Automatic annotation (TrEMBL):
PANTHER family: CYTOCHROME P450 (PTHR24305), P450, PUTATIVE (EUROFUNG)-RELATED (PTHR24305:SF232). The lineage of its organism: Eukaryota, Fungi, Dikarya, Ascomycota, Pezizomycotina. This is Cytochrome P450-dit2. Its cofactor is heme. Belongs to the cytochrome P450 family. Keywords: Heme, Iron, Metal-binding, Signal.
Length: 565
């Protein structure tokens, strides 16, 4: 090899290296504000974000502050080398309009699909908003409707809430005034309910858990100090619950990984993954087969009048009607039914458990609100903890509604809603290029950046009057009263909300979550006084799983004798 050839190869290698280095650095989109020093760093905004994550486990804190620093509701962030910027939008009015009315411009982002597709490739959560997606969603209309939720879900919710209270009563008695971890109890309760609602079988996980705690009470760690944690032994839980919990943790790790497809591939090679996945496949497929066999014995007229006892009944009955041309949707594939049922199981129990956890934390730290809620419940429900589902669901209890709405708002369980721009477009006058990943904030607590009305879309301007207010100086405080009008009635239009997203991709289980929260919270508040928890166990920080989950979820319970309240 001649000297000239060597120099030429070295020069080419150097040019390639310089090109790769240049490609690794941030390349800002024109016309969108950003932090100038971040654009000159290989790691972009990460040096600013990582300390915030270390302190709060919540990167959104940095992003909200950056919007105010740049005085713009639309900014761009540089989060990793060799990647396009992420556009962040923090303006509730415009976000509601985009999610609800501009679905042809913004659709499900590939990054979201990458998280769920390996677990749920045929579920609607992993698909773009296409006619196929709409047809698939149509099959499940009514599963989260009022009739189904009241007739099928509510009785099981009430029974499960009572079983949860019995479990917590046992734990409180053993703990003897010490705080203890409660998130897994809420999670197990939510799973118990959703399993029955979806598959029509009783899991009885809470009953088994309570019996296990009583059998192993000598294994409970009880420190000398009442301000230290009572630690209960970890018991064996239903195999399907353990599998779903394992998959949810896998999603959490995937969200934090640099390469989601690579992380999923590694995950799928693990023996634990394969074993749990195979068990899930056998169980769900077997339940689908059994229900199809049950429905196959019904005549056509019987099928029309068949009363569904679970979500699977409804889906498989409609499947048969669709094949007979009697249901306005294309017949679903078996994998679509399988994955959609499993999606309901995963997302449904997670939503309720996380929402209940935040609600309990807010009420623990706001004794006046907790006392007010208990007093109103006792006045409205004379039968107390023995109230029926009809009494709990049909009795107007404005402060209960206000408490739930405030907890959902402040809990911010869906903090970021991710979409991809499908065309060149604009948001609030800022140019958004086709293919850009856009993260929409759902948090309704930060003071909005002032925007001239003429920069907003016409629909955003027109819908401003739909809400009484859009911001108050105390929006970061837990104040249920903000949702009550002058007459003391609950008013959901006091402020805008985005806790369950909006538009055609609004959270499908929101009605289920709200109904279960209403029933469970009612029984918990009537059954226990949630005492203050030591500061070191009372962090309001969060970490991101599928949803935004409290870092710490501990309670110190005083069981209530209702004759003495």
């Amino acid at each position: 090899m001649t000297t000239i050839t060597v120099y030429l190869l070295l020069s080419l290698a150097l040019l390639l290296l310089l090109y790769l280095i240049r490609q690794a650095y941030p390349r800002p989109y024109p016309g969108i504000p950003y932090l100038a020093p971040s654009a000159r760093r290989l790691w972009g905004d990460l040096p600013h974000i990582l300390p915030v994550i270390s302190l709060t486990q919540d990167p959104a804190k940095y992003v909200y502050s950056l919007c105010r620093q740049l005085n713009s509701p639309v900014i761009q962030l540089f989060l990793r080398p060799f990647s396009a910027p992420i556009i962040f939008v923090d303006d509730v009015r415009e976000v509601k309009d985009i999610l609800g009315m501009r679905t042809m411009e913004f659709d499900r982002a590939p990054s979201t699909q990458a998280v769920f597709a390996p677990f749920l490739p045929h579920a609607s959560i992993a698909k773009r908003t296409t006619p196929e997606w709409r047809a698939q969603r149509r099959l499940w209309e009514g599963v989260m409707g009022r009739d189904f939720l009241r007739r099928v879900a509510a009785p099981r919710m009430l029974g499960c809430a009572r079983e949860l209270c019995e479990l917590l009563r046992v734990k409180a008695e053993i703990a003897g005034g010490r705080p203890f971890y409660v998130f897994e109890d809420f999670d197990l309760a939510a799973f118990d309910v959703i399993w029955t609602v979806i598959f029509g079988r009783n899991l009885e996980a809470l009953v088994t858990e309570r019996k296990g705690i009583l059998e192993h009470r000598e294994d409970v760690v009880l420190p000398g100090s009442k301000d230290e944690l009572a630690v209960f032994p970890t018991l064996r839980r239903p195999e399907i619950y353990e599998a779903v919990a394992w998959f949810v943790k896998g999603v959490e790790k995937t969200l934090r990984s640099l390469s989601q497809p690579w992380h999923h591939w590694v995950l799928r090679q693990m023996p634990a993954y394969r074993a749990k996945w195979a068990m899930k496949e056998r169980l769900v497929s077997g339940l689908i087969h059994d229900t199809r066999s049950k429905l196959a014995d019904l005549a056509d007229d019987q099928l029309d009048t068949f009363e569904d006892t679970c979500a699977m009944d409804m889906a498989l009955r409609r499947e048969r009607l669709a094949y007979d041309g009697k249901f306005d949707a294309r017949p679903p594939t078996t994998r679509e039914i399988h994955d959609e049922l499993f999606m309901f199981l995963v997302a449904g129990h997670e939503t309720k458990a996380v929402t209940l956890s935040w609600t309990v934390k807010f009420l623990t730290n706001n004794r006046a609100a907790q006392t007010k809620l208990r007093e109103d419940l006792l006045l409205s429900l004379p039968n107390g903890v023995n109230s029926t589902t009809e009494e709990i669901m049909n009795t107007p209890i404005p402060y209960l509604e206000a408490t739930m709405e405030e907890a959902v708002r402040l809990g911010n369980i869906h903090p970021r809603l991710v979409r991809i721009a499908t065309v060149d477009t604009q948001i609030l006058g800022y140019p958004i290029p086709k293919g850009a990943n856009v993260v929409f904030s759902s948090y309704v607590a930060e003071k909005p950046v002032d925007i001239p009305e003429e920069q907003r879309s016409k629909r955003s301007q027109q819908t401003k009057v739909n809400f009484r207010k859009h911001y108050d100086d105390d929006m970061e405080d837990f104040i249920p009263e903000r949702w009550l009008n002058e007459k003391g009635e609950f008013d959901s239009h006091q402020y805008p909300t985005l806790a369950f997203s909006a538009g055609p991709r609004v959270c499908y289980g929101r009605a289920l979550a709200r109904q279960e929260l209403r029933i469970t919270l009612t029984l918990l508040i009537l059954s226990f006084r949630f005492e203050p928890v030591p500061e070191k166990y009372n962090s309001m920080g969060a970490h991101q799983r599928i949803l935004r989950v409290p870092q710490q979820c501990y309670v110190r319970l005083t069981p209530l004798d209702h004759a003495k309240i």
